[in-house]
Each structure stands twice: as C-alpha cells, then as structure tokens.
C-alpha cells in the first residue's frame, strides 16, 4: 500500500455548527431550568432560596422486593442559600447545573473531571474558590443527578471507557453503522454514553448475552468464536463494569429481550459484581431503575467446581480475612438472604476457604471454559439466580 | 425491530479444525524447538544441560545513542539442571517453553495468568509444585522471551486489552475488515496481539497519528471529530499504553510512515509515558527494537502553559515529594540528559512546583484542546523531541 509522510496541515477553524438538541436533551434542559426557576421564584416572592436534595446515604436506601432492585427512599436534605453552612454547597449545586446546561447547549460532553476543571474558578471579589478539589465537585454532581432526576449521561457527563462487545448486532453510533459481528480480535469499545439518542439498535439476531468479567477471558471466548457458535453477544466490563457497560446491558436486555448470563469468578468480588449488575449498588441507588437487570443469571465458577470439574487444589487461591468478611457481608444482602441456593453457595465457599478464578479452568484445557464449562451450564440450565 | 427471547441452544461440540501455522508461528516454533534440542544434545553428549539466559537487570541495560532506544547488553546467567539452586528455575523455563509450544500447536492464545494456571501442577511422585505463584511464572516467561528471542505475543501470550483507535485506516483483523473511520463514539478496541499475521493494514490515508494519554480526553477528540478535520489516526492507551497499543503505534509509524504526536500531561508521569513510547522501558529493554518510536514528538502540556495559555492558578495541581523526585530522575535519563529543551522544560516544572493536566484546558473552553491548543502546536511545529 502507498506510504505517507506528511506534516500535519495548517488548521483552519471551522464555524461551529448549530447544535441539534435530542428529545432527551430537551427533557434534561427542562429539568435543569426548573431548578433555576425555583431560585428566581423564591427571590421574586421574597423567600430564601433552597434545594431539597434526596439523601444519598445507606439510611435512605432499600431493596424493593417487587422491583427486585435497590432504590432510594424519600428522605431529603434541605440546602439553603442564606445559611452559612450550606451557602457554599448551594452555590456549587447551581454551578454544576449551569455547567451541564452549558454542555447540552453546546452539544458537547465531558468527564466529571472535565466538568470540575470547567467550574473551578476564584469567585469574583473574593479569595474563595468554587471548588477546592474534585471530591467536592463529584459529590455535587451526584446531588444534581438525583435533584434533576437525570442520569449523569443525560447531563452530558461521561465516565472512563472500559469494556468491549462482539456478536450479531448492528448498532448506529453517532451516525456510523457498526456491525459487531465483524470486529476481529479487537471488538467494539463500548462507549461511556449509550443513551438511545446516541446508540440505536438496528438489527440483532442474538439469542442471549454472555457477559464475562475480564478482558483476558473475553479474548479467549472471542478467539474461540463462542458468540458465533452459540449465537450470542459477548461483552466484558474489565472487572466491575463501568456505567456505560451496565446501561448497555440493561438496554439490550429490555429493548431486545435478551437474557443475560454472567461468567464471573468464584470469589466475593465476582459475587459482588453480579450483585451490582442484578440489583444495583448502594452508592448509586438512584440509577438502579435504568441500570439493573434483576433477571441476570450467574453462570460463573461455583464453590462445588473443585470436585465437579476435577480441578487440582493447586489452582485454588486461599481466602484472606477481607475475603471472609466480604463473603459474610454479601450473604446478608437482602437479595441474597432469601435465596437458599445462594446461601449454600457462599457457605460452601467459606467452608472451602479458597477462591476459584475463571482462568483456573485452563488447567483442564485452554478452551475448556468455552467448549465445556459454559456450554454445559447453559444447556443444563444450571445457574444461580 | 423484532424481539427475541430464546434460551441458549443445546451445544454440539465441533471437531477441532486443523491449525494453520503462520510464518511467524513457524519461526517461533523453530526457536522453541532449538531450546529443547539443546537439552537433548547435552544429554547425548553426556554433558550437564544448561541455558544461558540474558540478564534482565539495570546493570545489563544501556541507551543506544545511534538507535536511540534502550537495549539489553550481552551479559547472561547460566541456569543448570544439575545445580540444586537452579534446577527448579531450569525446569520452569523449559515448562514455559513447552507450554507456549502447545499454544502455538493448538493455534490458541492465552494471558500470562492463563499460562500460569496451565503450567501449575504437582510434580509426579513429589510434593513439589511447578510454580508457587504467578510471580514465579511471569519472571520465567520474560526469561523465555529473551532466550527464544521472541516477543511475548509471538509466544501466543496476551496482556489485558486497553486503548482504542479511530481514523482513516482499514485493517484486517482475523479475517474481518475493520474501517476505523466508521466507529461512532465507541472506537476499535486495540487488540493485545497485533503482530502482522493477525492485524494487516489494508488502506490508510491518514497523515499522522495523534496519541492521547487518557480515554476521557480521547472521547473529547473523537466527539469533536479531530481525526476527520486533521486527517489523522486517534489512539489512546488508558494511561501507560499497554503492549498492544505500543506495538501497533510502532508498526503504523514504521510500515505506514506516519509521524506520532503524543498529547500527555505536564507531570512526571506524562513525561515518563512519553519516554517509554520513545525509548522503551528498562524492564522490557529486550523489546525496544519492536516497540519504541524514537521519532515520537511530545505535544502535551508544557511548563510554560500557565502563562502562555492564560490559565488560572487554581487549575494547577501542587507537586508532592514523589513528583519532585521522579522529575529529577527523569531529567537524568540519558536520552533527556543531552537535550537542552527537555532540561529547561523539567527545570521549569520543578520551579513551578505544580502539574498541569490536559483536562485543565477545559477551563478555557470545552474544545479548547481540540480546536486551539493541539492545532496551534502542530501548525507551529512547536513540540518537544
């Protein structure tokens, strides 16, 4: 092929294109403007402006047995402008709202770190800074999410990208049509923002989704073309899946009615990842509704696998005190508490006093996991729920 | 679109396809078999078998001023079978060689963790295990690389996948043709193994490569379609780029003759990343030849940018003791030592006593970095080298 060796061209600035707001953008703007209107209205009526912010704390989180996910309660904290202790965070909250409005108006997105840098300045006529560190700004952004009832992604904020997908699905992503069945060994890097106005499902012939914990395991499944043989989508989240991956799984599960099977390690961390995919996390309870998959199944390694698969003791990893403590905590999660099979599973893990990683199956053959272990579990309907 | 809800199908095992060895595979096998032959030959001649393993230590690493990268010296350590202190690591080295031969024979790849699990077993008739932990196995794999003069990827071992690419290049990846100009917001997930037998460059019209440090910054450049406006490839390595990203950059730089520009932070870590891309790392000096890009340019943030860009002091990050120590170390790297501009740059950073992240430019506008900062540097030829 022809070789190139050019210096970069002189750049000529283009005129910015007019921004086309999506229906989601319009709805988010309305919510943000509603917050601003409350300030104006309070001022007009000669009242002290305030915000009632839903309490993001363990005390205000509960497991909804009907919906089968963790949700926030109704407690709120009042944040007032004319209160010496609250004025700063009140101002920060409105600043974050204004920052996100600016992003939507400009048709741009940024990271929460980016928004922090954007909002950071010295307040005019004072020596005070708007934010002293990113921790302050991150907390205020989470407040804003619940306050404006908008996902972070709808506020045009993205997280770091992790996780990939391959399989028989065609997506439209920012105008490009992407066939995830033709991605080679690389895969489609799952974006951080996968809301319906940005990512559209065009065609999908898959029967289910197989979600694996780690990128290295995903590579094994992809190289063995598991997704082709079993007609499924294959995703991973590089450990604890980031928001983009969870949201995409949620959307595909609900909009395409695809069951989700998770291949995770037999250790407290693997069980915790499953729990977050299924029921949500306590920290981000506000987002459960649009993130969790209560029907997700666990087809990962099990505490009986040493015997069942005839594995050697020397591929096990001894549990430490933290592991034991975490396992006991997870057993007591309300959504595991009522489930006999999960109780037995975690009890057996504690009894074993060792952990088993998916990779340990390699001891039985490089492709044992893709050709025997997972296919057998799926065929037998042998999963934890 | 039509909705689906199927249970996974019953799996019918396929007959394994005959493995087709690539020219790279054949050459790697020859090298591995050469190692095994040495054992046989020694035995036949009644001699004690041994391996001479190139020393992987600082004392055996030097900066080659002509080649402009870090390379290994010629020192070796002898590892003997009939030596009580060396028998174990001798056996482990051959076991790793045999494990990698098995992978190539089977036409499969795995992670270094996977190979560890594959090799781990209790030695027959003894209580001794082949490997006690992955640390032992990782070190032996690095020995094998230098011993067999083969990159890890040629031994069919992969690292965790990180990093993505978009831009006007069409690749062939495991038989799929991938157009990186049609990847939406997601991007092509750069594989861990990008050797020429797996990744082929089909068409490329780009003029250069812009490599950015972090995924969040990459998202900004991708959203602003920087790569379209400036006709370049846009990559990131999620921090310190993993081997796959470094190797792909190296291949594209050399085979497609594309200059590489790096957008990194103004801090010791950013400078270190640049140093590794450009001259290689001390730990992996063996691979410099096929990984480093001595001509890579630094267009990241500079110590003069507070004044030059009119940034506010409050977007700076104070240096700590570790930062100061690292900066002084980097100043003394032989490849920075002779360069006046780099010396001035790092001296000024130490004088500033603060760091500047690429994201801090957001304070001047969401797209300041993509529309002003980087285009100006490129147009003016204003980079560090």
Automatic annotation (TrEMBL), chains A, B:
The active site is at residue 117. Its cofactor is Mg(2+). GO terms for molecular function: ATP binding; DNA binding; DNA topoisomerase type II (double strand cut, ATP-hydrolyzing) activity; magnesium ion binding. Residues 163-204 form the Type II DNA topoisomerase VI subunit A all-beta domain. Keywords: ATP-binding, DNA-binding, Isomerase, Magnesium, Metal-binding, Nucleotide-binding, Topoisomerase. CDD domains: TOPRIM_TopoIIB_SPO. It catalyses: ATP-dependent breakage, passage and rejoining of double-stranded DNA. It comes from the Bacteria. Its EC number is 5.6.2.2. Residues 89-156 form the Spo11/DNA topoisomerase VI subunit A N-terminal domain. One of its GO terms (cellular component) is chromosome. Residues 208-378 form the Topoisomerase 6 subunit A/Spo11 TOPRIM domain. SUPFAM superfamilies: DNA topoisomerase IV, alpha subunit. Mg(2+) binds at residues 213, 265. The keyword ATP-binding applies. InterPro entries: Spo11/TopoVI_A, Spo11/TopoVI_A_N, Spo11/TopoVI_A_sf, Topo_VI_alpha, TopoVI_A, TOPRIM_Topo6A/Spo11, WH-like_DNA-bd_sf. GO terms for biological process: DNA replication; DNA topological change. The keyword ATP-binding applies. Signal peptide: none annotated. Belongs to the TOP6A family. HAMAP family: Top6A. Relaxes both positive and negative superturns and exhibits a strong decatenase activity. Homodimer. Heterotetramer of two Top6A and two Top6B chains. This is Type 2 DNA topoisomerase 6 subunit A. It comes from Rosistilla carotiformis.
